[in-house]
Amino acid sequence: MSERDEAQGARSEHRATQRFARAANYSAFPLRLVLGFSGGVDSTVLLHALAEARAEFPLELRAVHVHHGLLEQADAWVEAARAHCASLGVPLQVAYVRVQPDGRGLEAAARSARLRALAAVPGDALVLAQHRDDQAETVLFRLLRGSGVAGLAAMRPIAPAPLAGAAAPWWLRPFLDLPKETLIAWARERGLRWVEDPSNASADFTRNWLRAEILPQLEHRLPGVRTVLARTAETMAEAQQGLDDLAALDDERVGHPQGGWDLAEFLRLPVHRQKNLVRWATLRLPALPPTHRRLEEGLRQAADYAGGVWRFPLGEAWLCARGERLWVEAAPQGCDAAYRCG
Ligand SMILES: Nc1ncnc2c1ncn2[C@@H]1O[C@H](COP(=O)(O)OP(=O)(O)OP(=O)(O)O)[C@@H](O)[C@H]1O
After folding, report:
1. 36 CB near ligand 1 (under 6 Å)
2. Does CATH number 3.40.50.620 belong to domain 3-229?
3. Which residue has the CA at smallest separation from atom 28 of ligand 1?
4. pLDDT tops 50 at residue 336
């Protein structure tokens, strides 16, 4: 390695450590971190960055690798992950999951199963290696599927775990503002080895098609578009925070002493705030938010409420009225009620 390479390596190591410290909002207390380690390039770089950060911070680092059992390479990936972690003295847990296709497609089912397995590992925080290009891709994908503000807020660098009852309360993404090419350059500088998931190359999945074909074309025409899309997520996250604050105020303003809302007071709110309040309350159950159309129909019917017990299905929740009260409650048969990260 030349002197120049060494200097570059040292600089990027320093940056990775600083980045981690910032993302973890790090102070001097010991932190038990669990890294979601797939063995791909991004999480391999993060594994090394965190392993090195142990020299500077009192970290307890463990890794978890989820074995989905879907591809013939899965067992070899486990072995590669074990070897990698052993070489750095990082304990590795392997979580074997069974992916149950549930009508949303195999990729989405695998993702849900993976999130559940990751959420089951105890620690102070789970650390994931998503980067700026993943963020841009998520924003574009969700835009094309008609997501609203909450969906377009995409991923946060520091966020509460998105699953109810997760064993690590915080999820950290220290690389979220770094382009993928920076991570690849880091890995090459260090001579790291990683595995390639062949399903990432399959254009059968819309996300892969966006990543491999559409985003490069957009970037060619509009240089910097990935950064623009990633910034959209930040703007939307702030907007969502404002909407949540408004919903919390409205919840208090029209709250009923027996829980839920006073129906007459609720109906005096402008319709867009009624919608915002019901969405907010649904997410806190927790349940997936209702579609716009269901929500509109539910609110239209609530406005015509004529007494008795009334219930309207909103996907994973019910909108209910009785007497002078209106409220939302979880639907017992909610298809996947604990999962709400979209
Ligand atoms: N099988 C897995 N086991 C443990 N963690 C995983 C696994 N797959 C993904 N992750 C974690 O979730 C993050 C996001 O997953 P995604 O599928 O978008 O990334 P990836 O393409 O697998 O990334 P990487 O280059 O790290 O492999 C990864 O960066 C990694 O931290």
Report:
1. yes
2. yes
3. 129
4. no
